[in-house]
Design brief:
By secondary structure, the protein is α/β, with parallel strands linked by helices. The protein has helices at residues 7-20, 31-39, 42-48, 60-63, 66-77, 98-103, 114-122, 139-148, 164-174, 186-192, 195-204, 215-230, 250-259, 289-292, 294-297, 312-316, 340-343, 348-354, and strands at 24-28, 51-55, 81-84, 108-110, 128-134, 155-161, 181-185, 208-211, 236-238, 260-266, 272-280. The structure holds iron/sulfur cluster (SF4). Keywords: Iron, Metal-binding.
């Protein structure tokens, strides 16, 4: 049996948590962590030992605002080819979705990487915009073609990339929900290292564990958080040491730092968060869609942040579970989503719907 899914080891970890007698409400910020919790039926096991784990703003498509998606739709409806990840296509806004724009004849294409988009731009004469979405995990890959150079003149990037740390701090400062510890995303830490998280433990007296993506990673991270609480410690520990190095990945971080700079940015469900967005550096202005297509983007109509009745903002702040939204499974399903949390495979509502019965 795959060693990170071993049932006997899981039982031992859960027993050790129970023995400690620590009750905790933890948050993670990663759709893959949520998928692991729900897919492998960990939630009832955690409940049994007094541990709650909730998903916060960890789905990149979900935290992308309706305004950003409306910008992409507006570009598409004004003759610009849009290349975006599949999860972006069906996110509804009050002016429709990218999929609706495509249905109406706009040139909207699904890509799996920025390289796909660059290749498409080479093969056409009209303008093409790649919509870059994601945290530190994906931002370096968006930066690679810019750093390599020799891009076609008709290619540009609309960056929706975001830094995770400022949002974690915003969440802590908002103080809406009790958070006894953070389960930090291992794939972000692969790039950033563990150092950027130290600050939260020191300032907010917050235990944190960098966590991998298998069931035993999740349970072990809960154990490590409980142990910190039990021993009165608040520090960053690395459960995912088989992959994450404390110093991170210098090469990926340099690409990210050489490509983007931090700007104040709105997140869905949050106010504007200081220095949380990744904008293209001025030296890449000719590839920055917000500059290249400034005139078209002025035409983007005002859009509501959420469809009426959608509670994605509360889900993203960890205030409610998806099943507590009155629309869950009724007005809102993956086939008729009211918000991005039901669209994206990393969205809390989508995961809860796909694996309902395991919760
Ligand atoms: Fe929004 Fe649907 Fe999730 Fe409710 S179930 S929060 S309506 S996406």
């Amino acid at each position: 049996m795959f060693k990170y899914r071993d049932e006997q080891t899981a039982k031992k970890i859960l027993a050790a948590i129970k023995d400690m007698g620590v009750k905790g409400r933890f948050m993670h910020i990663c759709g893959t962590h949520q998928d692991t919790i729900v897919r492998f039926g960990l939630k009832p096991l955690m409940d049994d030992v007094g541990i709650e784990v909730h998903q916060g703003p960890g789905c990149p498509v979900c935290v992308t605002t309706s305004k950003e998606i409306a910008d992409a739709i507006t570009l598409a409806r004004n003759g610009v080819t849009i290349a975006a990840f599949g999860d972006m296509m069906r996110v509804p806004t009050t002016i429709g979705s990218l999929f609706d724009a495509k249905t109406d004849g706009a040139d909207v294409r699904i890509v799996y990487s920025v390289e796909d988009a660059v290749k498409m731009a080479h093969e056409q004469s009209g303008p093409l915009v790649f919509v870059g979405v994601g945290f530190e995990t994906t931002a370096p890959s968006t930066g690679v073609p810019l750093q390599k150079g020799h891009l076609p003149e008709n290619f540009s990037i609309y960056s929706c990339h975001r830094y995770t740390a400022p949002c974690v701090e915003a969440l802590l400062n908002m103080g809406e929900s009790k958070i006894d510890g953070f389960i930090m995303p291992g794939h972000v830490a692969v790039v950033t290292g563990t150092e950027p998280f130290n600050y939260f433990s020191e300032k907010y007296n917050l235990p944190q564990v960098v966590c991998g993506f298998e069931p035993l990673d999740m349970l072990m991270s809960c154990y490590m958080l409980c142990k910190q609480i039990h021993e009165g410690r608040a520090e960053v520990e690395n459960e995912y040491s088989r992959v994450v190095r404390p110093q991170g990945n210098d090469k990926a971080r340099k690409i990210m730092d050489d490509t983007f700079y931090a700007v104040d940015t709105k997140w869905r469900g949050f106010p504007v968060i200081k220095k949380s967005g990744m904008a293209l550096r001025p030296e890449f202005e000719q590839y920055d869609a917000t500059k290249v297509h400034e005139d078209i983007l002025r035409k983007t109509p005002d859009v509501e942040e959420e469809a009426s009745g959608c509670n994605c903002g509360s889900v993203l702040r960890g205030l409610i579970d998806s099943e507590q939204c009155p629309m869950f499974g009724k007005g809102c399903k993956p086939t008729s989503p009211m918000g991005p949390c039901m669209v994206s495979a990393e969205g809390n509502c989508n995961i809860a719907y796909r694996f309902r019965g395991k919760l």
